[in-house]
Amino acid sequence: MFAKVNTAGLRGIEGFPVEVEADVQTGLPGFFLTGALSPETREAQYRVMNAIKNSSIHMEPKKITVNFSPAAIRKDGTAYDLPIAIAVLAASGLVDYRTFEDTAFFGETGLDGSLKRVRGALPLAFTCKESGYKRIIVPKDNAVEASLAEGIEVIGCRDIPEVLKVLGRIMRGEEPCQSEPDYGLLHGEQYSSADQDCSYTAHDYLWPEYDDSMEDYDNFRDDHDHLQEEQKSVYRVDFSDVHGQEYLKRAAEIAVSGRHNLLLSGPAGTGKSMIAKRMPTIMPDLSREEDIEISKIYSICGLLSEDQPLLGKRPFRSPHHGISEAAFAGGGNQVMPGEMSLASGGILFLDEIPLFKRDTLEMLRQPMEDRHITVTRMKGSYTYPADFILVAAMNNCACGFYPDRKRCHCTRAQIKAYMGRLSKPLLERIDICAEARPIGYNELITPAEAGSAESSAVIRKRVEEAFRIQEERFKDIEGIRFNGQMGIREIEKFCVLGPEETAFMEEVYQARGLSGRTYHKILKVARTIADMDGCERIAIKHLAEAVELRSVEDSLFPGAGSRGKQQQTIRPIKAAASSGRGRGNMQQQTVRPIKSADSSGGRRGKRASRQIGSMTSSFGEDSNSPDNESVDGFAEPGKQAVQAISTGVSSDPWGIQETDEEVL
Predict the structure, then answer these.
(1) What is the pTM of this model?
(2) Which spans in 136-208 are helix H?
(3) Does residue 540 contact residue 611 with C-beta atoms inside 8 Å?
(4) What domains lie within the chain, and their CATH numbers?
(5) What is the pLDDT of residues 474-530, one digit of tens each?
């Protein structure tokens, strides 16, 4: 006798409909599975038959053949156990599969007939909904998660006997009654199939005296949605915890506002990791659609708890530098999402990025551009989202004290080798590079409530305003929502420069030997800064700040300056005291250009020098304060790298380009 049951499978983060076909015939008893199955799926024959037997359902020894259609697509996981069991029972004549053709099933069975939680319930439920099924029957522990797929009825059952009771009502033409909604799931209560009376016959399962005192699942959904709203934006850290480092805070706010990648460098213990861990707190709350898409990834990995089927907040992933390539990008025996995908919609933080393996870091290149990653294995190709903000932190040398020459004993060659672990192509994909400075004692001991440190809530309001501007700008452009995601066409349309701004960027381009990618990165960051200031057009001050926020790249990879004739170096002079607060108002400062061998640069070169130099004053602090003075040659934020790069003129603000072994 033939029967078929509906279910779904997963291929990457996307699902596909599957039909489980069963045929039970007389002949030599056996259980055969066909249809491109993984080992754990093929082992279902042992789990299912024992589950049926231990549920007190008697079956004659028969030849059982189960096929999975489409047979050409590989099926992984244990979620096919329940569909196999129902298909076998239907093919044995215990239930009529034609009465529940609009019902789908998934779940793992235990040997005692109980239904166990499976990974990927959320994307499986959405696949069943998109396939047009009216209802799905799932393990009780997956019911909460599956119910997030609105528009499809979700019935959670504890074991096979309970599933048969539900099917009995369907066969009698009655409304299938859900299992009692499990409000205790939110409080971590557990259930056991041992509580069930399993001394039933198949007839008892299909035609029971059913209890109609069941409540609707809608009440449960409402309660859960309310709980999720309460959990949103609840973080145990806040930007007000950070003392000083207004320059880094400003860079972090710009990075979040436009979804730009960020590199924080500087001596150890200056708050780089502290700021990175607080960046999710200034990101706007997840919309329900974003939350569901991110939660699908976590569902596949089995990282969602039973009482919280939605993640509810921005992801923050901080993998160890010893992570393998498969764990970082995705892969493994079952081709699971990696850290890049788990950070989608949030922050991927790489602390001490030079310590990561070179091959691992280079895997970031394509996902940072395309916002997704395709993992290809012998089993097939799987595409996962990778729409994250990369935040990386690094010291200036292996000991972490450079440029404090009294404490750092690294040679120039050692410093250059340490910092040279970042490749030029990877660094060009990082929009913002900000330098940290040592924290003064008075800043460190000042209570947060007594200072001018802004809370994450205050900063988030500004970020949300910048988000609204970008949402309006890109509302008619598919696939682009933020400035950091703009392509060439969008840059040409939304980053139009005036004559003065064009002349300024031409001078910077020639002087610093920029690549085309870096030039476009500067324009995108400048567009974000202009949005934060509420300006429709990009001004020179926005461009100058964007240029300054790439100072670390100049230190690591000095340009050749071969694109222009002007040879000029910009020497930053100590800034006057500034009184900016909060968002880091810039203070103008004098910049003294060196006379070049070819003075054809003229006024434009001097103007560019002055504008870039104006970006180097400290943010919201008194630069004349003893706590803000340079520490053994360590200049104020960003000053050490504000230099134009040109032919024959060395630009090495950290003094690490020499290869001799002289001890600093």
Answers:
(1) 0.78
(2) 143-146, 160-171, 202-206
(3) yes
(4) 2-226 (3.30.230.10)
(5) 999 988 999 999 999 999 999 999 999 999 999 999 988 888 888 999 999 999 999
